[in-house]
Amino acid sequence: MRLLASLHESADRAGVVVTPHGSLSRHELLGRAAGVAASIAGAPIVAVEAVPALSTIVTVTGALLAGVPIVPVPPDAGVSEREHILRDSGATLLPAGLAAASAATVPAEPAPSTAALVLYTSGTTGPPKGVVISRAAIAAGLDALAGAWQWTAEDTLVHGLPLHHVHGLVLGVLGPLRLGSGLAHTVKPTPAAYASTPGTMYFGVPTVWSRIAADPAAARALAPARLLVSGSAPLPVPVFDALAALTGQSPVERYGMTETLITVSARADGERRPGHVGTPLPGITTRLVDEAGAVLPTDGETIGHLQVKGPTLLDGYLHGGDVRPPDLVDGWFPTGDVATVDPGGWHRIVGRASTDLIKTGGYRVGAGEVEDTLLRHPAVHEAAVVGVPHPDLGEQITAFVVADPVGAAELIDFVAGRLAVHKRPRVVHLVDSLPRNAMGKVQKGLLTTD
Ligand code: MLC
Ligand code: AMP
């Protein structure tokens, strides 16, 4: 089956991909994407400015038709992050509105093992790394979700998530294009936009759901939907409960990573358990291990490092033009998350093993890259960045800085201008010194915001 099967197989439907600024039928999308494919055929790798617009969807679809790996560049990326992504990937940046003429000839389907996407994502230190994801992984991941969520061509998916991550792009765009559902992209994931856009499935990160839960009229407008899906970060139990009360249905939670796609989920026809992310999707196996790698019991209480195995795993990280395979342990990918699993297979994500990976508004941000950027400001001598629990964002990026006299706003703008805007610290504490241990390492646990 072709990766974007519905584009080739489904009967056309008017306005199958819709944004507030326009719409495309499947036929129009296929023609325009085939035009893009013809204009980039043979390129080793391309990049696109992933603005939330039809043009991005056309360009990504064209690259997938051509079998050319594509790097979606965050549209709010500052100079340093943009330069890093383009230099590291070696990709040519195509304009979002690549003015290619429509074409009638669709290229032959590339091999399933071909790289489809390179998604840049943060590690604990250093600049973001390019995660290489194959067509086969995307196909397997979407088919597993189709089963778990009973996601069919009868559905209309609504979301307004960014188009440079797994959630908004792989699930939120490639899902409808493979499975045949409609897609309404609201450009921004606001409560008002979701409430005014009819659909059967709504995707959001917990920050989106928490804002909807705080807007009862908007939440009630989603009552007719078939599925409200939350992922990318922990959904607070009070938000789960508020959504259930206001919409008459409990949200479906699912868990995943850029490197693994979605691996664990609640099912459309099954239980939805607050504070839990569900059971492994078909084809995925999971296990908990201790620090030494010994397998731990799945008794619902024992906390261990979560590892996953299956067909949705990354090919590797892009490195100097090569794909460096991930550090798998006998085929198991170490997620970096700590979890419990109960005898029925229900997973509860307890947190991350490292405090240096922050999840803010559903975005993954490495403390190291924010610290490195702050240190490039001439007034800054030392910097330590942490994620502080936050009711709206999950975690709020908070910086502790030893510096010559400088305003917090200047440092925030300095980071926002160099990295993606959402990587900016929302709060900067100017301090006399950072707490360090005898080895000179910053003791982040001792940083307090009082
Ligand atoms: C603010 N802005 C600035 C600025 N401060 N611009 C420049 N300099 C500054 N100092 C601007 C921003 O550009 C933006 O402009 C506006 O202010 C608001 O920005 P914000 O405050 O950062 O937005 P916020 O409301 O906090 O966003 C919340 C959110 C967002 C939920 C909408 O965090 C979001 O879209 N999250 C989704 C993340 C996601 O998709 N993650 C999936 C990862 S995949 P403007 O013009 O834009 O309004 C994954 C796998 C899986 O995790 O399991 O799914
Ligand atoms: P990213 O690579 O940006 O996709 O981030 C992946 C990380 O997001 C995971 O390692 C988890 O820490 C977190 N995550 C994703 N989904 C969930 C979820 N449903 N609950 C808790 N954490 C999640």
What does this structure look like?
This protein is an alpha/beta fold and 450 residues long. It is built from twelve helices and 25 strands. The protein folds into two domains: 347 residues, ANL, N-terminal domain (Rossmann fold); 92 residues, 2-Layer Sandwich (GMP Synthetase, Chain A, domain 3), CATH 3.30.300. 27% of the residues lie in helices and 28% in strands. The strands form six sheets. Strands 2-1-9-8-10-11-12-13-14 form a nine-stranded mixed sheet. Strand 8, helix 6 and strand 9 form a beta-alpha-beta unit. The relative contact order is 0.10. The site of adenosine monophosphate has 20 residues, from strand 12, strand 19 and strand 20.
Short description:
This protein has 450 residues and is an alpha/beta fold. Helix content is 27%, strand content 28%.
Q: Are any ligands bound, and if so which? A: malonyl-coenzyme A, adenosine monophosphate
Largest sheet: 9 strands, mixed
Shape: globular
Mean pLDDT: 96
* Structural class designation: alpha/beta
CATH architecture of the largest domain: 3-Layer(aba) Sandwich
Q: CATH topology of the largest domain, which one?
A: Rossmann fold
Total of helices: 12
Strand residues, percent = 25-35%
Question: How are the strands of the biggest sheet laid out side by side?
Answer: 2-1-9-8-10-11-12-13-14
Helicity level: 25-40%
Question: Using only CA atoms, what is the Rg?
Answer: 22 Å
Q: How many discrete structural domains?
A: 2
In CATH terms, the superfamily of the largest domain is ANL, N-terminal domain
What is the end-to-end distance?
57 Å
Domain AMP-dependent synthetase/ligase: 21-318
Protein name: AMP-binding protein
Family: Belongs to the ATP-dependent AMP-binding enzyme family.
Pfam family, one: AMP-binding_C
